[in-house]
Amino acid sequence: MWTEQQQQAARDVLARAEELRSVRVSFVDQHGLLRGKTIPASGLAAVFSSGMTCVSTLLSKDTSGTTVFKAFNADGGLGVAAMAGAADIVMVPDPTTFHSIPWTDGTARILCDLRFQNGEQVPFCSRGVFRTVVDRARAAGFGYQTGIEIEFHLYRRADHAPNADGIGKCTYPTPVEPINQGNQLLSEDRGDEVEPVAQRISEVLERMGIQLRSIEVEYGANQLEVTLDPAEGLRSADAVVILRSTIKQVARRHGYHATFMCRPKITDSKSSGWHLHQSLVGDSGNAFVPEDGDGPISTVGRQFIAGQLAHAKAACVFANPTINGYKRFQPYSMAPDRIAWARDNRGAMIRLVGSAEEGTTHIENRVGESAANPYLYMASQLHSGLLGIDAGLPLPASADDPYTTEAARLPVNLREAVDALEADTVFAKAMGVQFVAYYAAIKRAEIARFERTVTDWEHHEYFDLY
Fold first, then answer.
1. How far apart are CA 59 and CA 50, in angstroms?
2. Which helix (H) or strand (E) holds 458?
3. To 10 degrees, what angle do helices 414-423 and 433-452 make?
C-alpha cells in the first residue's frame, strides 16, 4: 500500500527506532481528534508490516463519545459488512508522518490511515476523504496549497481539580483563570504575559518539524493566533492536527489550558476562527496568478472562487462542525455572515489577496472555526473549488460592503448547515454520498442531545418568571 517514498521513510524510521522507548500509533477521527495506541518501539517493525487493529466503533461516535450507529448489526449500522459486530479495522501507518514528541522522553508519533482487514480503504477515514480529492486535483493537473491562520484561547488552570467529586464522565469544564483581560489585539505587553508558555510551544513545534510563521495575541482576552507557511496536500492538514494536539498537551504540562472551542463562555472571550489560505499549483506555478490584463486573478481562480460560493452552504458543516461555531457569524465582526467575496476585505467570506507581480495571488476563506477537522475542512473547500472549475462557473460581482450586500446568508446554526449539506446533491456526490450520510447522522445526533439539554439561559430566563 506504500509508495516508494513511504517505503524509504519506513527504512529510515526503523533505523532510528532503537533510540526510542515508545511510539504513539494514531489516526484522526471524524472530529479531528487523535485516537490510537502506544506501543514499545521494538514493536514498530511489526506495525509497519501488518498495521495495528482498533475497534471500528471509534468511527461511530459523536462528540460525547456516544455510539450513534447500531454497531452490532450485520452491517455495523452503517451499511458496511466489514464493521459488523464492532469488528476491528486496521491503522496503517504513514512513515512520512513520523515525528518525535519532545515533551516526553523517548517517544514518537506516527499518523495512520484506516483500512478494512481486506485492505480496502475505510470510507469514513478523514485522511482518506481528503486524499481522494487531492488525487482528483492532481489528475486535473493541480496541486492544492494551503496556508494556516488559526486562533485559540489560553488560560491558567485553576488550583482545584475538575470533577473532583467522582471518576465518572466529566461534569464540568476544566476550571481556569484568566491570564489577561480586555481587548488586546497585537499588544506587546499582553504578549509578554503569555511569552513563557508561548515560547515553549514554539520550541516544541520546531523540534517536531513545524516552524511557526508567527504567534501573536489576538483580539479577545486570553486569545492567541498562530500561522503556518503554505504547504501542499496532506502535509498541511497533518500539520494542523499535530499543532493543535501539541499546543493542548504542552499547555497542560505547564499548568495552562488551551482550547480551540470557537467561543468559550468566559468574560471577554471572542470567537476563534480558522482562516484558510488557498491556491492551486500547476505545471507553471501558481495557477491563480492572472495573465497580463486578465484582472486580479486567473480564469481558473475565478471559477474556483465561484465554486466555493456556490457550495458554501453545504461545505459549512465541515468548516463549522460544532453547535458553538455558528455564534461566530455576526455582522461587523471580521467574520462573515453571508456568502460573498471581495478584494482584500476581511468582512467577506472569501478574501482575494496576494500579488500577481510576486506570484502570490491566492484566496483566504474566512468561514471556518478553529475546531474544524482539517482533512474535512480542506476536502470540502477543494471539492467546491474543483466543481466550480469543472462547471466553468462565472464569478459574481465582488462585495465591496460585505455586511450589507445582497447575498445568500451562511447557515445560522448546525441544523441548517446539515440540511444544506444533504440538499446539495452535486457537492454530496463529490464528497461521497455514503460519507455525507454518515457525517450528517453524527451531527444530527449531537443536535438532538443539545436540544434535550436544559441550558443556563433557559434557567435564568424562566425559573423565576413563571
1. 21
2. helix 456-462
3. 160
